[in-house]
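Sample intake sheet
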Amino acid sequence: MIPVIEALKKGTRSTISIDTLKAQVAREALRWGASMVNDISALRSDPEMASVVAETGVPVILMHMKGTPADMQVNPTYDDVAAEIIGFLRKAMDQAVSRGVRRDRIIVDPV
């Protein structure tokens, strides 16, 4: 991952996002030039991820996911899909803010 980040930093002015569930991976990627974190677990998988995002002040993408990466596509069912996804993301945002992440640094990915 680090060589890819380094090459992208040299070859582009684009924002580099690290897609990870692991705080240590995010920390290293940010150290080497990534500038945002995309956490498909909405900061639920690694208890240290919110601290990494809060301490660095980078934007974080919180993604809706029902279940785990292993089973999230296996028959997901909802009574009210829009309301449940909105509720999940609101709760994820509130939890992130309560753990020190600035609300204006949160991006939501509903699908």
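Comment: The chain has a mean pLDDT of 90. Helices lie at 2-11, 23-31, 49-56, 81-98.
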